Amino acid sequence: MDKRAGAFARLFEAVHEGVYIGTIGPDDSSTIAANPHLKLIFGYASDAPDDGVCPLDRSRFVDPQARVALLERLTTDGSVNDYLLRLRRADGNPVWIELTARADAPAADRSLRIEALVRDVSERKKLDDETRDIYHQLLQAEKMAALGQTVSGVAHELNNPLATILSWAERLSQRTTLEEPVRRGLETILSESERAARIVRNLLTFARKRQTTRAMVDVNQVVRETLSLRAYEQRVTNITVIDALAAGLPNVFADGHQVQQVLLNLVINAEQAMLSANGRGILVVRTWHDPDQESVILEINDDGPGIPDDLQPKIFEPFFTTKEVGKGTGLGLSVAYAIVQEHGGRIRLESRPNVGASFYVELPVTGAKLSPVPAIRAPEGPVAAVAGASILVVEDEAKLASAVVDALRDAGYLVDHAPDGEEALKKVQAEAFDLVICDLKMPRMDGMAFYRMLSAAAPGLAKRVIFVTGDVAGTDAEKFLEESGCRWLAKPFRLGDLLRAVREGLD
Ligand SMILES: Nc1ncnc2c1ncn2[C@@H]1O[C@H](COP(=O)(O)OP(=O)(O)OP(=O)(O)O)[C@@H](O)[C@H]1O
Ligand SMILES: [Mg+2]
After folding, report:
1. Chain center to CA of 486
2. Is it the case that residue 370 has pLDDT exceeding 50?
């Protein structure tokens, strides 16, 4: 061997790049030379005979179509540069490689003699994929924010008519002399408008930050409680539940009810998917602690139909549903996504068709700051009125105002109405009231301005104001309610809740 040939041979043996010389045809390939690094990439021993190493054989391509395309390119262009391929190693595991190759003109049987450099880029590909994932997550978050604004606007518009319908239906259904069909009709109106109110609430939860009350929450406890809510339903529908809840899980700083809502939405989705595909199912709920991320992870796994790849990017979008009208609104996952995001966490899906789906919810052990305004929530049941008390209702929405006014009169109160803050101030100066129910958002003088004037004019009464409002989270109104310490009710509300708040306000 002359000196040059010796130097080339040493380079061939030592270089940290796969070198391949051989022939590749439509049906098979044969190897003339393969260097040790190439063998390493493909998982062969470094002293394996060269002709047994056939990285470009048909069986080595994860996607057979990719081999056809490569041959075409080599035939037409005579070369490829940094050509990305997914090939199989000797043990069958896939590896991403970049191929830079030169080919002679094709022989009669269309086979090509090639000299190629091969680089293992699996690590880089993994990083690229991760970057792309993060990019998609950002994109998703932005899309959600834009949609959220539109959606919350629509939801707000629906609040007033819904509150009116609910109030009327509730009042009418309390009459004792109703004919049967009327009573049934009213009950339907009541339950359907409650359903609509729930959807609106879901929309607002998804669209904006809601009031949350966070505390240190035992996720395992939330899981147990949520599963017990579903236990009966699951038993009768042939769903088996297996839980694997890690012992010694740290508590997370979260809103327990919201975490429960997330879990419930995921569990119900899984049940629906398994039942509609197989009429039965196995649901696995797991929790564990990830000390690296300082997070708690919750997995909800089902053995249902899974979610096809092309639908996976869509499922978290509001109103995306594959269920028939009336069965799903497509909000479950949007709400779950919004809640998990607000908690500084992540939600992720892994699914293979016909094997099932796994949703992973990851919650940081230490969460964001606490929001202190409590919403008024009270148990159901009739509330006795405070005899002779007089109430001023300040509400610009005429229909809602009259529903509220009438309901309070029915309950035994003396009631007056003002359509805005200015009118209300005049009335307050002319007459004595025991309590004011006031909308926050009104034309001319809004609720906040009215409250300030009232505090100066009649400080005693200012302590007895109940505000009624749509979603306030993240607005000036939230700060105002927090600072003034006033009672408030979120629209649409139940009459029972209003009467209870009035009763408490008068005490
Ligand atoms: N575990 C699952 N298995 C298969 N498909 C699922 C699963 N979870 C969600 N999906 C798909 O994602 C879609 C969106 O789910 P999402 O919970 O947001 O809405 P929905 O269940 O259709 O309606 P809603 O929850 O408002 O009643 C579903 O319609 C379904 O196609
Ligand atoms: Mg759902």
Report:
1. 32
2. no
